[in-house]
Amino acid sequence: MSFLTETSNVAVDERVARTPWYQKVLRRPELGALLGAIVIFIVFTIADTTGQFATLAGAAGWTDFAAPVGIVSVFVALLMIGGEFDLSAGVMVGTSGLFAGLLITQLGWGVWPAIFVTLIMAAVVGYINGLLVIRTALPSFIVTLGTFFVLKGANLAITKGLTGTVRVSGVDQADGFDSARAFFATTFEIAGVEFQISVIWWIALTAIATVLLTRTVFGNWIFASGGDSNAARNAGVPVNRTKITLFVLTSLSAALVGIMFLLRLRGMQAGQGVGQEFYYIIAAAVGGCLLTGGAGSAIGASIGALIMGFAAVGIPYALWDQDWVSTFLGIILFSAVLINITISRRAQGGRTK
Amino acid sequence: MTENTPDLTPIIEEAAGHDPAPPAADTPALRLDDVGKTFGSVIALRNINLHVDPGTVTCVLGDNGAGKSTLIKILSGVHKPNSGKFRVQGDEVDFSSPRDALARGIATVYQDLATVPLMSIWRNFFLGNEPTQGVKAFGFMATKRAQHTTKAALLEMGIDLRDTNQPIGTLSGGERQAVAIARAVHFGAKVLILDEPTSALGVRQSGIVLKYILAARERGVAVVFITHNPHHAFLVGDRFYILNRGRMIAEFVRGKVELEDLIQAMAGGAELETLAHEISSIR
Fold it and tell me: Measured between alpha carbons, how far is A31 from A240 in angstroms, rounded to an integer?
């Protein structure tokens, strides 16, 4: 009966071709976003009337827009790969900025302790989101839509109740403001051009998320939880713990951006962040994340955010009507997702459905 | 996408003529004595006796609603029996979750729920058993090692896949089942429970799976093959149990049973004859 286990007589199947290098490239989920980014960059460079778009100064402009979007998008992407949505990520930016701002201005806390407690608050909100999704087995779309509206109302009511206005201001008087600002909201110079420090945070977090996703055990669990949670459970993957962790990470990334805005603007509007959640989801989807979970990339989401930066800066530079920015992003979303799906079907090797 | 055996028939025929079951070992890998299971007022299983030896294929045959799923769930730790004794390697056990069963070396491969289609073959192979390297707390996966081990372990079972990086969804149904079987064997399963592994597959694909069932058997694994297809069971089985309406109605041993006996026993003998008569009168 050795015929079954002897490796020497394993017939080489003549129908299996070696995987060509280009197919490996085509299999990358961020390819569609990268090609899109190149095309859009070229279009805006040509349409540019200021001569600034494709310069270092232009780069400082579009990365300034892209970094805060990108930081959250990367973690929204991980969550989407894990098979869940978080619509409360945008309003969480406002909630955490206001929360830290109120701790500082109303209770007289130092900036650093306020930041620390704000991050804990954000982690708790993320944990509650995750727990509600797991326990109720409702779609995370509904659960986090609920969280979104609860927080949106609370932001406005509490801010107005405590300050009498819709803005928290005066945080720059507090202890530790300058050191915190130097860490979260300063600028740095490249060849005489000022870049926001958030760009460094964005690049670093994209790298960390990419390693987490592709090189760690937890990353394997993210793919499995989103790809097929039943099969993952059968194989012994702690699916619930994985998803809850992803909700916490998303909420923390939103809090980080909220703190950055608070320190940079020396205050916070009650409506800050509302509407941003769609930018994050667009960036993740443009970057190759499947809306059904199980596939995607953190780098792709970052490229998606970069495309938004191109549009935000490129459209006024081209002297086009700014009111069309959202329409432009909608078209980008639609075409990028179409391209991604077409490419991935090709790369699956003929098994198109 | 490999099917290593361009022509399957001789292998399956040879397999069909394989040696009769080795003499029963002293301690069976699994043993059920008078096991029963009820759900409220519904009696799903009653007085089930089952004996599974290492290095054999034990087939449990039954039609829809016979109680096959309940039996699998008891063996794999999902359900607890209400009565009777469940022994693993001679020790009486009381599983409260599939993890307990896994810890005793009982692995279950479910028909559709075995692999994650979008993930690569090696990621699927190591899912839940990921090898780590470096600082343990960071949980870095030893990806290169995992890829090599996957390829080697699959080759050992006679599965040749060039690129373990391709999504497992690009493989055929039979190959996916084969990878799931190889995975269970690689991670030291002593008992392998297969839930209808061939039911959704064509003839060739079923042949592939049957071949790997025998490969697992040859490595000393006790295979429990649950199916409603007596043809498939007859090709690979050493012992056959027929389940009908929650009862074990017959037990056969390889060499002392013909395929017709299995079909007859499954269909409930007289019922099939009546049916055949009715059909012939219609035609």
Answer: 31
